[in-house]
Amino acid sequence: MNLENVIYKLRRALDNRINSLSISITSGGVDNMETYKYIIGQINALEATKQELQKEVTNEKAKLPKPTGWRLLVLPFRMDEKTKGGVLLGQDTIDKQQVASQCGNVIAMGDACYTDKERYPSGPWCKVGDWVIFARYAGSRIEIEGGEVRLLNEDEVLATVQDPTDILHKF
Q1: Fold type of domain 71-166
Q2: Which of 63, 74, 100, 131 could form a disulfide with 171 if both were Cys (CB 3.0 to 4.6 A apart)?
Q3: With a threshold of 0.85, does the pTM exceed it?
Q4: pLDDT surpassing 80 at residue 121
Q5: The pLDDT of residue 1
Q6: What long-range pairs does 88-92 form, CB within 8 A, spacing at least 24?
Q7: Is residue 65 a contact partner of residue 142, using CB atoms and an 8 Å limit?
Q8: What are phi and psi of 32, to 5 degrees?
Q9: Domain boundaries, the chain
Q10: What's the rounded Cα separation, in Å, for the pair 126 and 129?
């Protein structure tokens, strides 16, 4: 599993845990001060973990190429190393899936992306952080440590999705 997918899953888990702890406090589910202090400590620890993860992502993104003009830098989705049934997948299988992936996370945009008001009257089709769908062989592939990224033209984005695991990834 690559760093971007790990961070995506950890952020979701941390946000869910923070929300559930916050709901416990606001709904009166806390019956004594010790429990309240414990929950606040947990929330603070989770927020600190989120900030550390964000720093790690920022450091990794600094190593990536910067897209120019109307291009997007997309990190293709990489499936888990283990299936739901518990079968461990080989590295070759995971690498082939990432190369053939049609879903990715937008990690950077060129300065001219979606600026043409005549071509994009309703605004940008996506933004940094969105999961997008693109054609199987769209864009230029660039090898990086731990996989590859793709440089796509702005008009090669076909759709956006909330969760990349909702898409069936075949190769």
Answers
A1: 10 Kd Chaperonin, Protein Cpn10; Chain O (2.30.33)
A2: 100
A3: no
A4: yes
A5: 45
A6: none
A7: yes
A8: -150, 165
A9: 3-61, 71-166
A10: 9
